[in-house]
Amino acid sequence: MSTAPSLSTPLREYLAWLRVEKGRSDKTIDAYQRDLVRFDGYLGAKHRTLESVTAADLERYLAALRAEGLAASSIARHRSSLSGLFHYLVDEGTFTNDPSLRVTPIKLPQRLPKALSEDTISSLIDGISGVDPLSRRDRAIVELLYATGARVSEICRLDLNDLNYDNGLLRLIGKGDKERLVPIGRSAQAALAAWLEHEGRQALIETSKHRGDAAAVFINTRGKRLSRQALHHLLVERGRAAGIEQGLSPHTLRHSCATHMVAHGADIRVVQELLGHASVTTTQIYTKVSIDQIRSAYEKAHPRAHKA
Fold it and tell me: Cβ distance 113 to 285 under 8 Å?
């Protein structure tokens, strides 16, 4: 990440604060930087200074982005970048007024999460049928992702002392280091047990050149804790082997778990606890019915749906 030298001092300091104090990734800072460079150029063209910006100026800027054809999600990101900047400047005492507080929020279209069908999930899991260490590991990972709806980071962070699968329970450490116990079904328990047998996890450690991570449940071929990137990659590869070319990720399995549970009658509060959502509002998206489902049900049920 390289800070653009043309940015004014407050903008450069804000980006440095994001990196050092907030620990934002280079990718995030680069995105903020691009947004701020664009806004800085807009102010220059209007012969305005950052100090003189009003809520009306911000509204006009966002309207200009909209007129250029930017998607609502991109405009919302620009608004977030500017809001963060002005919040920072007020907190630092550089400015006394935050004009972004009076800017109209950007309404984003609510999209239904993409979920795989139950048959596709079964094909994916059944396709990982080997008894070698990597097959045991990968099947256990897929089973757990689908069984618990866990985030990829939660699966990667699993330690051996988080397991109590004999009682059908698993301890997950989620956002903000919040812990929760989640149940896992017999299929996931069996896959996990097969991975933890000597022919699974220990065999992978013995074939590596390293001592191995003594705590991690899931490890790579070097015996180290499996990373999120590596987990995502193995999932994509297993998906391709099962004929799933697109749309497969750890998050897809999380969505599929929640969607299928709601479809089979699970209470939304139960799904909320399972997924570790702080608010039930986040979980309620799984209760929405897609237009295809509505159309299909209508055509099956309405007496005049097919009459000319």
Answer: yes
